[in-house]
Amino acid sequence: MASIHPKITPIYQTSVFKFQDLDELDQYYQEPNSRYLYSRNGNPNSDELADAVNALEGGAGAVATSSGMAAIFAAILAYCQAGDHVLCAADIYGGSAALLNTELSRMGVSVTYVPFEQLYDLGQHRQDNTRLLLAETISNPLLRVADLRRLAAHCHELGLKLVVDNTFATPLLTQPLALGADITLHSVTKYIAGHSDVTAGVAVAAEREVAARLKQIGVFYGLTLSPMESWLAVRGLKTLRLRIREHSHNALALAEMLNQHPAVRAVYYPGLPTHEQHALAAAQGGGLFSGMLSFKLTDDKEAVSEFMRRTTRFPFAPSLAGVDSSLSYPLGTSHRALTAEQQAALGITVGLIRLSVGIEPIEELMADLQQALS
Ligand SMILES: Cc1ncc(COP(=O)(O)O)c(C=O)c1O
Q1: Cα–Cα dist 13/85, whole Å
Q2: Is there a catalytic annotation at residue 40?
Q3: Which of 354, 316, 308, 321 minimizes the C-alpha distance to 335?
């Protein structure tokens, strides 16, 4: 056969790899990175994804996982066992809270939620068995921005690890490990892959031993990612730099427009000077604010449904961060499982709509929102 030198890594769509003889098997166990054995344990495509995100995040090693949830699970298990306690920012993706409340609690890991205003005063929530704080760089859905350098210093003073969900910010805006976090993770499903066609995650550690732990948890619990999904995510990742600029520019323009609109009660976007953490977001995000924004209509279900029916460029599709715009409804989807009191405390009301602003021509998105709100 002619020698083959593909420019792009082929998809190694195989669950297992061959060995010539027992010498090769010995070689695998003596130098595990020298060859592959079984795709759950390691595959060239999932390694390529993990290495690429690890490089962007400045980590010591990473594991690609079958979803963002799997990355969160792996990160918590890297530090916790039965009898331990974790702190979690109250402003968090609803699925993360559901994992802690319904599954990790059964495994003996308890949780206390910390209101955003108390994130830098964790002493009052810390217990002797508290191991870590889980927080998002930019929170879902109200886009509150955590001061990661301050948070990491505060956590370490108290002997806690800081685990950061960097999904909304991406490493192009913020690199949590450089600011002191111990693990950073992503729902790769979102900006990293970027095209709404992959479900995947990644967890990246600041230290080699923790990275090895993440990898082991991925392998033993079967959280690792398939070759095809890895390949798609790697392909998407190559344009992250271009996409995130367009997402950010478009979102800022729409946030400014919505902020002036009489039907809009409030706009949540870190790029607006009126946002409560605008200065921090500008410094920590290198002047970009990502493509997610939320806004409030009047608290009337019918007004929300009417907006959903009228918009043609923002289909109601409860995910985010694809190149095509979409919208979501936190009260009915991501934060549905919270109690009414929790929803109210977080500002998740009937009129709250979250936009994932895509990279389409901005004038088309503006015209669509104008007509949908008119
Ligand atoms: C901030 C954040 N983290 C984690 C997840 C979970 O990711 P996945 O759906 O890939 O499991 C999501 C999903 O929406 C998310 O928004």
Answers
A1: 40
A2: yes
A3: 354
- pLDDT of 9-55, one tens digit each? 999 999 999 999 999 999 999 998 899 999 999 999 999 999 999 99
Verify whether residue 93 is a known catalytic residue.
yes
Residue 150 bears catalytic tag: no
User: Which of the given ranges, 40-44, 331-335, 346-350, has the highest pLDDT on average?
Assistant: 40-44
Residue owning tokens 């809009």: 264
Number of CB atoms found within 10 A of residue 90's CB: 20
Closest residue by Cα to atom 10, ligand 1, is 68
Using CA atoms, how far apart are residues 192 and 139, in angstroms rounded to an integer?
A: 17
Contact in structure between 267 and 347 (CB atoms under 8 Å): no
Where in the chain are all domains bearing CATH 3.90.1150.10? 240-373
Q: Which residues are near ligand 1 (CB < 6 Å)? A: 67-69, 93, 95, 136, 140, 165, 167-168, 187, 189, 199, 201
SS3 162: strand
* Atom 14 in ligand 1: residue holding the nearest Cα: 319
Omega of the bond leading into 10 within 30 degrees of 0 (cis)? no
Handedness of CA 282, 285, 288, 293 (dihedral sign): negative
What is the 20 CA–ligand 1 centroid distance (Å)? Answer: 41
The single residue of 28, 35, 40, 149 carrying the catalytic annotation is 40
Amino acid type, 145: V
**What are the pLDDT digits (tens) for 109-137?**
999 999 999 999 999 999 999 999 999 99
Asked if 18 is an active-site residue, the reply is: no
Q: Which of 93, 113, 191, 329 is catalytic?
A: 93
CATH 3.40.640.10 in the chain, residues? 22-237
Does domain 22-237 correspond to CATH entry 3.40.640.10?
Answer: yes
Q: Mutation test of ligand 1: which of 189, 202, 223, 355 has the most ligand atoms closer than 8 Å to its C-beta? A: 189
Domain 240-373 of CATH type 3.90.1150.10? yes
Give the atom of ligand 1 at the shortest distance from the alpha carbon of 168: 1
